[in-house]
Amino acid sequence: MKILLAIDGSDFSKVAIDELATLPFPAGTEVCILNVFENPMLAAPGALPLGGTLGNYYEETVSSAKKSAEDLVNEASKSLRDKNDVLSITTAVVEGLPKSAILEKTEAFDTDLIIVGSQGHGAFSRFLLGSVSQSLATHADCSVMIVRKRGSKEKNNY
């Protein structure tokens, strides 16, 4: 079985890591821990260093975001290995938009199951903001497990 664990460093991702560690998968189950980082320059257009020139600022900003993402997946990998020694774990860091990058990795990895944390937004928030987990559940060609943080039941505001 191949599992893609998509994380973003939030408490919801940590809950997803913990949940995956407790599930009884057979030895040799492959897990790819993925973090998608968005280019910080695109996330904050117009953000320039003091002085108004880019210089090495762009490369340093992207490099820093990538390094943070790599640290995140390495920490998640160590945590998962400490809790479950039957899983075969790899990590991946990609730049892009989370919704599309996760689906692309799902196809490339030939994923059987995607595991993500839930942000716990209500229906109205999902409508306004969009949701990676909602998008994956709708568009993925495999099963998707959305792990909810205990005690975070969303209020139904219909």
UniProtKB/TrEMBL annotation:
Residues 2-148 form the UspA domain. It holds the Pfam family Usp. Gene3D superfamilies: HUPs. CDD domains: USP-like. It comes from the Bacteria. InterPro entries: Rossmann-like_a/b/a_fold, Universal_stress_UspA, USP_A, UspA. Belongs to the universal stress protein A family. This is Universal stress protein. It comes from Flagellimonas nanhaiensis.
